[in-house]
């Protein structure tokens, strides 16, 4: 199987890449830190690894880069879009960066991927959104908003595939807390999964062609509570 992971230089993306590399799949990895991409390649005996620089904030360049990577690999069966950023108490400039990467950058690549799979008459598009897509937050409303956008866009593509393109699968992965650079400064987080455990559960969800999957699985309880909780309670809890 030929798999591309967009945003594979650290955290969840890196662990997903390493998981599929260990299974001897043909794997394409992208990111802004080329030295990290080279490190992933050098740490593996799998020769079927392709790496490409990509800054998803530059939407047209990233779409062309993805097309070039797919051509270099001789095709793509699964496209996993993992690139994303978040900031605690973001400035206006940081909020706009979150929108550019998590929303505009994601949509540009998801659109390209879906259109490519249409030409192939099959494929699997995977977006790594977040449990934060469920409801907003007073601390990072821009982050929650972009993750909700991702989930909604993936849902729309899934409806589109169900209506017209039966062999194209769309999966929305919604992680909770995972050990990454974005979470390491917050010591109060609970149910924090290792990137390796998250990668295994993500791979299981992809193999099962799930529509929506929470990682780790028990975060479905958190999402359920977030949806049902009245505003006045949710505001106090947050």
Could you provide a short overview of the structure?
The chain is of the alpha/beta class and 238 residues long.
Explain this structure.
With 238 residues, the protein is an alpha/beta fold. The chain has one domain (2-237): Rossmann fold, CATH 3.40.50. It has eight helices and seven strands. It has a seven-stranded parallel sheet, sandwiched between helices. Strand 6 (168-175), helix 6 and strand 7 (212-215) form a beta-alpha-beta unit. The protein starts with a strand and ends with a helix.
Question: What secondary-structure arrangement, pairings included, does this model have?
Answer:
Layout lengths: L1 E5 L4 H12 L3 E6 L2 H9 L6 E5 L5 H15 L4 E4 L10 H29 L2 E6 L12 H24 L3 E8 L19 H13 L4 E4 L3 H10 L2 H7 L1
Parallel strand pairs: 1-2, 1-4, 2-3, 4-5, 5-6, 6-7
Helix pairs in contact: 1-6, 3-4, 4-5
List keywords for this structure.
single chain; 238 residues; alpha/beta; Rossmann fold; seven-stranded parallel beta sheet; 8 helices
CATH superfamily: NAD(P)-binding Rossmann-like Domain
Q: How many domains is the backbone divided into?
A: 1
pLDDT < 50 stretches: none
Proportion in helices:
40-55%
Order of helices and strands: EHEHEHEHEHEHEHH
CATH topology: Rossmann fold
